[in-house]
Every structure is written in C-alpha cells, then in structure tokens.
Amino acid sequence: MKRIPLIAFLVVLLAACATLLCVAALKPVSALAFAAFAAWLLAPYGLMAMALAALRRQQATELHGYLVAVLVSLGGIAWLAVILFWRPDAQGALAVLMVPVYQGVALVLLAPLAAWLGRSGSRG
Q1: What is the mean pLDDT of the chain?
Q2: Virtual CA dihedral for 26, 32, 37, 43, nearest 10 degrees?
Q3: In terms of C-beta density within 10 A (0-12 exposed, 13-18 middle, 19 or more buried), how is residue 1 classed?
Q4: DSSP string of 20-53, one letter each residue
Q5: How many whole angstroms from its chain centre is CA 112?
Q6: pLDDT tens digits for range 78-106
Q7: Chain centroid to CA 28: how far?
Q8: CA dist., res. 18 & res. 34, Å (int)
Q9: CA-CA-CA-CA torsion for 49, 6, 12, 113, nearest 10 degrees?
C-alpha cells in the first residue's frame, strides 16, 4: 500500500512530461507561446500533485484519492493525443485549450466521490 502514492505521483509526472511533448508537437511560434501553453496545460497536474502531497501528509490509506489523480492524468493525456494525432481538426487548437477545463471538471466531480467512498468504506 505504501507504493500507491509513489505510483500515483509517477503517473502524474509522466502525464505532465507527455503533455510537454504535446505542447512541443503544437510547434508554438515563440518561447513565450510555448511557456503560456505549457503553463495552461500543466496547471491540472500541479493541482493534482499538491492534492497527492496533502493525501500523503494525512497518511490517507484509501485508494480512491490516488485513483482520481491517475484517472484524470491519463484522461487528459489521452484526450490530447486524440486531438493532436488521431483526429486532427481545424478546431483542434480550441480543443487543446479546453483539456485543462475538462480535467478540472473531472477533478471537481470525482474528488468528492472519492472522499465519500473513502468515508463509507472505512465505516463498514
């Protein structure tokens, strides 16, 4: 069980690195554009890393919180891959900008569910 937080951090880190590769694949016209895209697309990963650190500090043993971070990370990078490589489209730039919004919505919806599952699982 002690490896679960480490695995979750590793998945979030790898998804963040893959996101940077996707930003490079977008071929921004300047370093400032690269930095802006990277900061926007990496924001959910920073939020998840902070949440995972808080879970680890609380010594949370429930798998649910870690699973949320893994699912949202993998979902974000999968959606970027679909937008950029499998189904490129003229509106792909707008879709890329929406990925962090979708990840935020997923976090807002799944985090309370994970907390509820953790509480109800510890009672019974």
Answers
A1: 88
A2: 150
A3: exposed
A4: HHHHHHH--SSHHHHHHHHHHHHHHHHHHHHHHH
A5: 16
A6: 999 999 888 888 877 788 899 999 999 99
A7: 22
A8: 14
A9: -70
